[in-house]
Description:
five-stranded antiparallel β-sheet, globular
Amino acid sequence: PRLSPYISIDSYVYRDKVTYLATSGCCDRFNPLFDGECRQICVPSGGFTGRGDGKCVDFAETARPLGNIWTVPRS
């Protein structure tokens, strides 16, 4: 929906598992990473510092992108 807090969801292989990164549409919001059971793993980016929650600092260097799952429709 247009009121979604996220603008896209992309899939990645991270630590040998398929994961899903939800990207926020605006400033200072976290971009959480979820596993296949919709459990939040960590927050690799976003927030006030832009560095997420510090629990998966290797995400940008080690995650392998698989593709876009969803993008908010804009009209």
